[in-house]
Amino acid sequence: MSGRIKLVLASGSPRRLSLLNQAGIEPDTLRPVDIDETPTRGELPRACANRLARAKADAALKAVQLDDELRGSFILAADTVVAVGRRILPKADLADEASQCLRLLSGRNHRVYTAICLVTPKENFRQRLVETRVRFKRLAEDDIQAYIGSGEWRGKAGGYAIQGIAGSFVVKLVGSYTNVVGLPLYESFSLLGGEGFPIRSGWLNAG
């Protein structure tokens, strides 16, 4: 590996990549991992997010260890969970799932948890969990059906993407907005910077 410090993003999410880019960081590569994201029986939302972020980081580390170019890189993994009370909502793949999520979220508060897991070049693991409270307006059936038609919900935790049309559903948000998008930037930068990653190196030409 060259002397330059490298960063691997263990995600194929365009939203997570976009957030890092927004803050002046360009990962050297994306290494999305395929793990079973089904919550275990009775698992609480916080525990689920933490477990899945760690599992993604573990899987990415195994892949990076086999790559001479990337061995010794920082690895950043994350998992986002949307919950109403203790109930974890699915990452909606079907229109029916997304519709059910939106009906449940309509006019109510919910919480979004993102766990981030950073693997250092020395293969130490650092984790943080961020929680944001969100309240949706009361959604008319027309709102729900039109949103389903947009397709924005596909693969999204809780069946919505706050950075798109569903941003107009939000009455109140308490906490980190970037957490709800899928990667809490403040906490991610704190972890990276604290472990010696050059977080400001890409700022010079950011304008």
Which key phrases capture this entry?
about 210 residues; alpha/beta; Maf protein; 7-stranded mixed β-sheet; about 20% strand
What would you note in describing this structure?
The structure is a single chain. The chain is built from six helices and seven strands. The chain has 207 residues and is an alpha/beta fold. It has one domain: Alpha-Beta Complex (Maf protein), CATH 3.90.950.10. Strands 1, 2, 3, 4, 5, 6 and 7 form a seven-stranded mixed β-sheet that branches. Helix 1 links the parallel strand 1 and strand 2. The model has no long low-confidence stretch (mean pLDDT 95).
Arithmetic mean of pLDDT: 95
> What proportion of the residues form beta strands (DSSP E)?
15-25%
Q: What's the total number of strands?
A: 7
Shape: globular
The parts where pLDDT drops under 50 for at least 5 residues are none
Structural class computed from helices and strand pairing: alpha/beta
The total of helices stands at: 6
Largest sheet: 7 strands, mixed
Question: What Rg is obtained from the alpha carbons, in whole angstroms?
Answer: 18 Å
